[in-house]
Write a structure and sequence with these properties.
The protein has about 700 residues and is an alpha+beta fold. It contains 32 helices and 20 strands. It is flat. The termini are far apart.
């Protein structure tokens, strides 16, 4: 068999120039992605020390319709497409040229690496390196103009009061020369010959990446689609990308009018979400690795490809994708989530619940022809049930497959059969015992934002058109991203934290922050409550705000307040309130089954308002709120995670995984409904402190 590859040495400056000009391009086998900045830093450090940093792999073809420029500003036709090493090459390009690239969240991103000439140390650029005269804040300046960068650095040192001897200048000059010399660092590049079949290239790509466990099952499928159905791959990418932008923003980017995007308050769609729904609808499969094996269509005994089977399986996906990405299907499904009482991603603790429920919606609408008004309520109840029970938490693929197999027993077009099966499944899942025992027990938790059951309770309050705790303002105004944010609306302790600490002697954060101790109210009410005992502040609130006896009765019901709750012991109060929360949630769920939705719906495609910027990890470290060596915990103490702030100002989890931001570290743990700033807390003597409290106290002495 003739060789399919050869190895050639490339210098870094040749590689970077090739990316800049477009001769080295990114094939549809991969999507744009940039390493975390810490990995880019380590890459430059290894190159500077002369260490090997691995090989690259190119495919020597020139097909304009199957590649895209990394830089976005190509001037010549592509001659080489990256098969392996895209992260390293893209990162080199971004850091050395000081230009933006697109990351895996479809955002434009720049990477700044700093360098300390005296210690010859690389770091991710921070506010501290920008302020210090002893750091080159961005090494891109050196590669752009070495002489000017060196002179600027020396002048900055002298302006800061450092006296430079001749030896200092000579040594610094050598360091700058060595740094600039990284452009001559040589990579070994494996070139796959241009006449090699695309199927073989795809197979090589999958094998290489699967060895390092870099790919997920949906990546395999996306890779295969890039070879056999590139238009489909583009549609998947386009749907995911558009879910992150309003029609106005999409119009600006596309340069033509875009009237609709799938942006919604609940989910920033990922390509994997689209693939999962497409495979479920097209192939009736939930396990993506099995779906990929079907697409490969290889005979297990001989290794031969069955071309006819491969085409049949691909045709199933071709038929399914337009259904998954259909504007009406997606919009009406989003309305189903609204019908269930949920208003934003903050109330949904599992993205898989959204994806799986969308599959159920699509089955009902397309395979079983359920009338849309009826289907909305059915899926609203299914979604609520799934959130409440954690149906798709854990072995989600196995559960989705069970559901697909269950519904497959119904004949096509049997709308009543579909509805009956939905109702039967809910009935045997959410039993009387579940409401009586499981729900109250599930509320024994210390993070209301991460509690699926408590978030269902809040959705129930919204569905029941409830007012906030002792406030004539609707809960939906607190929850709804379609309405302007009102400062200070959040969950507050009914038995105040400081009262428990000072009067009851309670120091256990887990006990203080029980979810049954929270109620939605505003900041002004919380200030009035202050640190006082319920026996003191509750009669005062009743006198001032409770003139309407009917409204007070509804307050007790909505907010699950036991009789004489303000006089109960804390443990008795929590136990009784958990049961009452379960009752309110059950009432709303059963009402949803009887009546459907009675409140006016907001537009389903209304974009989420941009959240206010929260303090970043870099800022927390730079300003002394967090320090190297600090242990971080989730706000829920039941969640055991080994996370530490490193010397580099990153978060390291389990001593292996390193992240540049609070959000990335939270997403690694599959937390999607709250920001990293809300999720992480600082471990301190006697408990943990949410980062908002850490910031409120002020920086610690360095």
């Amino acid at each position: 068999m003739p060789a399919i590859f050869k190895t050639v040495s490339w210098q870094v400056d040749q590689l970077v120039s090739g990316v800049q000009q477009g001769s080295i391009s990114l094939p549809d086998l991969q999507r744009p992605f940039v390493w975390p900045a810490t990995k880019v830093r380590d890459l430059f450090d290894s190159m500077y020390r002369g260490y090997p940093v691995g090989t690259l792999m190119f495919w020597d073809v020139s097909e304009d319709d199957s590649s895209r420029s990394i830089s976005g500003s190509s001037t010549i036709a592509a001659a080489h497409q990256i098969v392996d090493g895209q992260q390293r090459l893209t990162s080199l390009y971004a850091a050395m040229k000081g230009l933006e690239v697109q990351d895996d969240s479809y955002r434009r991103k720049s990477i700044k690496i700093s360098f300390h000439p005296y210690t010859e140390r690389f770091e991710v650029a921070t506010a501290a390196t920008a302020r210090s005269a002893e750091w080159i804040n961005d090494i891109a300046t050196v590669f752009h103009s070495p002489y000017d960068a060196q002179e600027d650095f020396l002048e900055g040192l002298e302006a800061a009061g450092r006296e430079l001897t001749r030896d200092d200048r000579r040594r610094l000059g050598e360091v700058f020369k060595k740094l600039e010399g990284l452009k001559q660092y040589q990579f070994e590049v494996v070139h796959i010959q241009k006449d090699v079949d695309k199927r073989l290239v795809a197979d090589v790509f999958v094998r290489i990446n699967s060895e390092g466990m870099n790919l997920k099952a949906y990546d395999y499928i996306l890779t295969w689609l890039s070879v056999f159905w590139p238009d489909g791959r583009d549609q998947i990418e386009g749907f995911a990308r558009a879910s992150r932008m309003t029609p106005e923003r999409a119009t600006e980017i596309e340069g033509k009018r875009v009237s609709w995007t799938p942006k919604n308050p609940y989910l920033a769609v990922e390509t994997g979400h689209v693939v999962r729904a497409m495979v479920a609808i097209g192939q009736n499969r939930a396990k993506l690795i099995d779906a990929y094996a079907n697409l490969q269509a290889k005979d297990r005994a001989t290794g031969q490809i069955d071309g006819d089977k491969q085409e049949r399986e691909l045709e199933k996906l071709r038929q399914a994708l337009p259904i998954v990405t259909d504007r009406i299907n997606w919009t009406e499904f989003i309305r189903s989530i609204q019908i269930a009482g949920f208003r934003s991603h903050a109330g949904i603790t599992s993205n898989m619940n959204i994806v799986a429920s969308y599959v159920m919606f699509l089955l009902g609408r397309t395979r079983y022809s359920v009338e849309l008004t009826r289907l909305r309520t059915l899926i609203a109840r299914w979604f609520f049930m799934s959130q409440l029970t954690g149906r798709y938490t854990g072995s989600s693929e196995s559960q989705i497959q069970k559901d697909l197999d269950m519904f497959a027993e119904i004949g096509d077009g049997d709308a009543d059969g579909f509805a009956d099966l939905v109702d039967q499944t809910i009935a045997i899942t959410v039993t009387n015992d579940f409401w009586e025992f499981n729900v109250p027990q599930s509320l024994v938790s210390s993070s209301y934002k991460l509690s699926p059951v408590y978030q269902c309770y809040l959705a129930s309050l919204n569905y029941l058109d409830a007012d906030m705790f002792m406030l004539r303002m609707k809960v939906r105004e607190w929850m709804d991203p379609a309405l302007p944010a009102i400062k200070g609306l959040e969950g507050h302790h009914l038995v105040p934290r400081h009262y428990q600490e000072s009067a009851l002697g309670t120091t256990d954060t887990k006990r203080i922050n029980q979810v049954a101790n929270f109620a939605p109210t505003d900041w002004h009410t919380n200030v009035q409550i202050s640190d006082r005992a319920p026996a003191e502040y509750w009669p005062e609130l009743v006198r001032e705000r409770g003139g309407d006896a009917g409204w007070m009765e509804r307050q007790h019901y909505w907010h699950a307040l036991p009789e004489q709750w303000h006089l109960l012991s804390y443990e008795d109060f929590l136990a009784r309130r958990r049961k009452l929360i379960a009752t309110v949630t059950r009432d709303a769920f059963e009402k949803l089954g009887r009546d459907g939705y009675s409140l006016p719906l907001a537009p389903a495609d209304l974009p989420v308002e941009a959240a206010a910027d929260e303090t970043s990890l870099a800022t927390l470290v730079d300003e002394g709120f967090l320090m190297p060596g600090d242990q971080l915990d989730p706000v829920d103490p039941d969640w055991v995670v080994d996370a530490i702030v490193t010397e580099d100002g990153t978060i390291q989890i389990d001593g292996v995984h390193e992240f540049d931001s609070l959000d990335e570290a939270a997403r690694f743990l599959e937390v999607t409904n709250v920001s990293g700033f809300e999720f992480w807390a600082l471990e301190q003597d006697g408990g943990i402190a949410p980062l908002a409290d850490v910031v409120a106290v002020g920086p610690r002495a360095k």
